Every structure is written in structure tokens, then in C-alpha cells.
């Protein structure tokens, strides 16, 4: 039980900006193990964002404005960790002429044209999807999207080699197959509890398809994974799920 609590603290400290002590989270093997609880922390993030969005709607804030403020609150809560990864992936994959150049661009903290466009498209898509969801589906949809998006990360981590030896992904340690299965299982259970069964299965398929596409793209572009690839995968999966649920319930 203590190990699970340690993993929860480690996952929360990494995925959010909450002041969460984690006694051995700096060790690669501990961080790799903690990835099994990424979906649980993701669900909590989604619930917080959804409740905030619902509160804004309840006090009369227009749906579009409420969605924008909720997404802004999400970025504050998470430190825009995955959004930064998406932007770096777009800059590197779009602007580099070979894998080495792409990796160098991805390491650069400055935001380029491709990264800015990716962030705008992602934000606008999530904004429109969230604004179109009815009140009784806002919290549930965000819980599912954030849990599934983070539940895919261990699968990317075990299925791709490291594109560089000194990046965040390499230093964090690689989870094993059991961790990936547990993470996916937790994400799926959360999604089934949050959504109608057929919608939960479609959301899980959307998350898996997003991860598969990103994995294949990263393999072709840079030969493997980086921390930015993991972050970009979460954002693509999250956006795809919200669009899917908006189409079904909006």
C-alpha cells in the first residue's frame, strides 16, 4: 500500500503543479513504476477542470467563455506540460530536415511557427468540443479524456526506443509491460465508469489510435521517443476523445 501511495505522490508531483512530496520519485525505477497511476491523476485533473467549467456555466458564463477559462485553468494546474511537448514535436517534425536537426529543434525552448499553429489548432478544437457538450457530460467527458490520454503514455514508452540518450524520457526510466497494462486497465475502468459503455469503448479506441499514429510518426521522424513525444501523444489523444464525445453528445 505504501508503494502505491508513493506512486500516487510521484505521479501527482510530475503531472501537476501541486506541492506534493514524493520521497523517492527522483529515482528512475520509482518514476517508471508511478506511471501506472498516471490515468488516476489524469482523471482527477479532468474532474477539477470539468467542475470548474460547470461552475462557470452555472453562474451564467457563456459556454464558449467557460470552456476557454477551464482550459486556461487546466494549463495552470498542469504547468502546460503536455502542451509544451505538442508544440516541440510540431516544431521539430515540421522544421527539421533530418532526425538530428529535428531533435535539436525539439530541445530548443523557443516556440516556432509549427508549434504555435499546433497549439492554436489543439486549443481551438478542444474549446469548440468542450463548449458543445451538455452540462451533464462536461465532467464525465473530461475525466475520460484526461485518464485515457495519460493511460497511453506507458505504452508509447515501452514500444519505442529512445531517440536520444540524455533526454527526459531516457532519464525517467522505462516502465515494463505490467505497468503499461495496469495503466491502460485503470484508464479503461475510469472511462467505463464515467461514460455510457458504447461511448467508453469508442473513446478507448480513439485513444489507442491516437497513440498508434503518434508512435509511428515519431519512429519515422526521429527514430523513437522523447518526453515531447509523450506529451504530444497525450494532447492528440485528449483532443480526439473530446471531439468524439462532442459529436455524440453535443
Automatic annotation (TrEMBL):
Q: What GO terms describe the biological role, i.e. biological process, of this protein?
A: cobalamin biosynthetic process
Query: What class does this enzyme belong to in the EC scheme?
Result: transferase
Q: Where, per UniProt, does this protein localize?
A: Cell membrane
Q: Supply the Pfam families for this chain.
A: CobS (PF02654)
Species of origin: Bradyrhizobium uaiense
- Coiled coil spans: none
Q: Does the keyword Magnesium apply?
A: yes
Reaction equations catalysed:
alpha-ribazole 5'-phosphate + adenosylcob(III)inamide-GDP = adenosylcob(III)alamin 5'-phosphate + GMP + H(+); alpha-ribazole + adenosylcob(III)inamide-GDP = adenosylcob(III)alamin + GMP + H(+)
Looking at the UniProt entry, the stretches that span the membrane are 37-56, 111-131, 143-163, 175-194
The molecule here is called: Adenosylcobinamide-GDP ribazoletransferase
Organism lineage reads as: Bacteria, Pseudomonadati, Pseudomonadota, Alphaproteobacteria, Hyphomicrobiales
Q: What is the membrane topology listed in the Swiss-Prot or TrEMBL record?
A: Multi-pass membrane protein
Q: Per its UniProt record, what NCBIfam families does this chain match?
A: cobS
What pathway does the UniProt record associate with this protein? Cofactor biosynthesis; adenosylcobalamin biosynthesis; adenosylcobalamin from cob(II)yrinate a,c-diamide: step 7/7
Domain of life the protein comes from: Bacteria
| Cofactor(s) named in the record | Mg(2+)
Record flagged with keyword Ligase: no
Please list the GO terms describing molecular function. adenosylcobinamide-GDP ribazoletransferase activity; cobalamin 5'-phosphate synthase activity
In the Enzyme Commission scheme, what number(s) does this protein have? 2.7.8.26
* Sorted UniProt keywords: Cell membrane, Cobalamin biosynthesis, Magnesium, Membrane, Transferase, Transmembrane, Transmembrane helix
GO cellular component terms, alphabetically, are: plasma membrane
The family this protein is said to belong to = Belongs to the CobS family.
State the encoding gene.
cobS
Amino acid at each position: 500500500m505504501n508503494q502505491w501511495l508513493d506512486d500516487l505522490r510521484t505521479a501527482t508531483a510530475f503531472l501537476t503543479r501541486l506541492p506534493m512530496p514524493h520521497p523517492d520519485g527522483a529515482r528512475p525505477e520509482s518514476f517508471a513504476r508511478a506511471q501506472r497511476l498516471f490515468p488516476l491523476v489524469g482523471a482527477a485533473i479532468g474532474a477539477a477542470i470539468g467542475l470548474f467549467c460547470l461552475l462557470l456555466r452555472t453562474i451564467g458564463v457563456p459556454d464558449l467563455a467557460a470552456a476557454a477559462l477551464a482550459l486556461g485553468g487546466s494549463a495552470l494546474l498542469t504547468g502546460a506540460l503536455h502542451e509544451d511537448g505538442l508544440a516541440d514535436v510540431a516544431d521539430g517534425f515540421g522544421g527539421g530536415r533530418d532526425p538530428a536537426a529535428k531533435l535539436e529543434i525539439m530541445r530548443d525552448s523557443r516556440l516556432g511557427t509549427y508549434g504555435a499553429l499546433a497549439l492554436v489548432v489543439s486549443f481551438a478544437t478542444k474549446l469548440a468540443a468542450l463548449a458543445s457538450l451538455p452540462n451533464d457530460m462536461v465532467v464525465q467527458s473530461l475525466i475520460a479524456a484526461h485518464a485515457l490520454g495519460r493511460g497511453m503514455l506507458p505504452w508509447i514508452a515501452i514500444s519505442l526506443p529512445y531517440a536520444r540518450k540524455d533526454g527526459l524520457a531516457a532519464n525517467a526510466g522505462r516502465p515494463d509491460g505490467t505497468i503499461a497494462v495496469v495503466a491502460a486497465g485503470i484508464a479503461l475502468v475510469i472511462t467505463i465508469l464515467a461514460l455510457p459503455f458504447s461511448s467508453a469503448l469508442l473513446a478507448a479506441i480513439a485513444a489507442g489510435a491516437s497513440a498508434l499514429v503518434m508512435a509511428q510518426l515519431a519512429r519515422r521522424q526521429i527514430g523513437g521517443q522523447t518526453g515531447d513525444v509523450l506529451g504530444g501523444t497525450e494532447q492528440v489523444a485528449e483532443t480526439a476523445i473530446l471531439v468524439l464525445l462532442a459529436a455524440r453528445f453535443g
